[in-house]
C-alpha cells in the first residue's frame, strides 16, 4: 500500500534532519596528523633511493571515514612493507577453518628470503615481521626509532611518545603528560647512553666500506668488503696494517677507552639478534598492589603493521573477482586486483581464548613458534573507499560514531573494521542511484539491518573472503549484548546521532607502565646500538649498489624527487634569507648532478664543482657566530664534504686517507671533549 503524502513528508523531513546531523560529524585531519602523513611521504622518497621498503598509510586518515572526538585527534594505520621481498602465493597453506589465515612455507623461492630463519615444521614464524628484523627492514627501523626517541623525555608541548609491540606489529601513542609529575618517571636517560661506543660502531661501518672500495679498485673484479679487525678498548686511529697474504686490514688505536668488541653480522642464524628491542604490550593487573602503572590522556596513536607483499590474487578471494554485483564497477575491480594484497602476522581468535583477544600470547617467545599470518586487503579497501560517493561516506561516518559511543562490549565484539565491511556489502547489493543525500538515513538503516541479520546468524563475512567470519571465537552472550545495542540504535537512529553530537564520548585514558615511561639505560643502549647496526647494514650495501647498473639507472631521478619533497617541507619552516640562499644553491646543485649523471658532460662537472663550493660558502655564515664543538664539527664537515663533492664531480682522485683522517679528527675532538 502506498504511503500517504503526510508520511512521505515526514520521511523527507527526517532524512534532512539526519543529513544535517551527519554533516556535523568532525572528520577533518588534525594538523599534527597532516604533518605525520607528510613525513611518511618524505620518508618513502628516501626509501625509493634504495628500493628496499616503504610505508603505506591506510585506514581512516586516508579513506574519508575519520571521526574525531574531544581530546583525541585520531590515529594512523601504517603498513611497513619490505619491497625487496615479494612472496609466492602458491607457497601459502590456507587454514580450512579460517580461510583468510595461512601459513607460509619456507621452501623453493622462499628458501633464499628466509635463509636465516628457524622454520617451524617447514613454516615461517611471525617473528620475521613482528620483531622488525634487520634482515627485512632498514630505513623503516630508523623511522620507528626517531618516533620512539621522543619518549625519552617530555617535549616542550608536554607530550611523550611510547612505542611498544602489539598483536600485529607496533603501537605508537602520543600521551599528554600535562600536570603529571615526570620528575621520577620520565628521566633524562640519554646521558646513560654509551655514545663513544656508538660512535665507534658508526666509524667501523664507514671504514669497512671505504676499505672495500680501496681493496677492489679493479672494476673488472667483483667488489668485496673486507671486515676490519679491531683492537679492543682503544680509540682514535693511529695507523693501518694490511696483511700481504689475505688483504685484511688491522687498524691500530691509542686512547685506552672501554669499548666492546663489534657485534657479529646480522646474517647470523640467531633469529632474535636482528630484532628491534621494544617493550611488549602490557597486561595490567588491577588486583596487584605492586602494579606500577599510570593512566594518561591519549592524543593520537598509530599502528605500524609489518607486512609482506605477494604475487597473484589470493585463492580464498577468487570468488570476489567474478561476484555478481551492482558496485564496484569493473574498472575499480581491475584496479583492486592489480593493486594486490599483503599478509600480516595475525592468528585467529581461537576458542581457548574465551572470546577475549587480549589473552593472546604475543610475547617474542611465542612469535618464534606461531606461524599464523592473515590476508590484508588494506590497500584494496582504500581503492574501494575512494570510489564511494559522499552520501555513502556520510553513512559510514554515522555508523562509526555509533560504534564509538554505544557499541563497546567487554570483551570487544564489534569494531570500526566490521562496519567498513558492512558498508561494502550494502554498497555491493544496492543500486548506485540510491546513494544520494535524500537517502542517507535509509542507507544507515540498511547497514544496521544488515548488521542485525549477521549478528543473529553469528556470522559477519569478510567482504573479500565471504567464508571468513569476523566474529568467529566471540562469546555468544557478548554477541547477544552487541545485537541488543544495534537494535536499540536501529529503533532511534536520529536520536542516537543527536545524543552523540551533544555528548561526544571522551577518549579513555591510556594505561602505561612506569617502566615504559622510564626505559632502563640498558634498553636505551640496546635500541641505540640496534639503530647504529641498521645504519651500518645500509652503509655496507654501498659497494654492491655502486656496481648495480639497474640501481644506478634511476638513482638520480629518485634523488631529485626526494629533494623536491624535502625542499617543500623545509620551505614551510624557513624564516631566514641565509637559509633560503642555501636551499637555492642546493637545489641548483642537485639538478646539475642529475644532468651530469644523464649527460656525462665534463662541462657540467665543472659547474657542479663551483656550485658545491658556493653551497659551502653560503652555509658557513650561518654557523659563523656559533660556538662550541658542535658548530666547529659542522663547519669542518661542510668543508670536507664540499672537497669530496668537488673532486668527485671533476673526476679527480680523492685521497682517502686525507678524507677519513679529516672526519676522524672531528669525531675524536668530540670524544676528547666528552672525556
Task: Write a compact overview of the structure shown.
The protein is an alpha+beta fold and 675 residues long. It contains 25 helices and 15 strands.
pLDDT below 50 for ≥5 consecutive residues: which ranges? 150-154, 184-190, 217-242, 246-270, 668-675
User: Strand pairing plus helix content: what structural class?
Assistant: alpha+beta
- Strand count: 15
Average pLDDT confidence is 77
What is the tally of helical segments? 25
Strand content: 5-15%
Report on the structure:
- The chain has helices spanning 5-23, 31-50, 60-63, 109-113, 127-130, 139-148, 195-214, 318-322, 330-339, 364-367, 378-386, 390-406, 416-429, 440-457, 476-491, 493-502, 514-517, 521-540, 542-546, 549-553, 555-571, 577-599, 602-624, 629-649, 656-674, and strands at residues 53-58, 75-82, 86-87, 92-94, 101-104, 159-165, 170-176, 229-230, 234-242, 249-256, 293-296, 298-310, 342-345, 373-376, 510-513.
- α13 (416-429) crosses α14 (440-457), α14 packs antiparallel against α15 and α22 (577-599) runs antiparallel to α23 (602-624).
- The protein has 25 helices and 15 strands.
- The longest helix has 23 residues, at 577-599.
- Strands 1, 2, 3, 4, 5, 6, 7, 12, 13 and 14 form a ten-stranded mixed beta sheet that branches. A three-stranded mixed beta sheet has the order 8-10-9.
- Helices cover 48% and strands 13% of the residues.
- Among the domains are: 185-263 and 520-544, no CATH class; 554-675, no CATH class.
- With 675 residues, the chain is of the alpha+beta class.
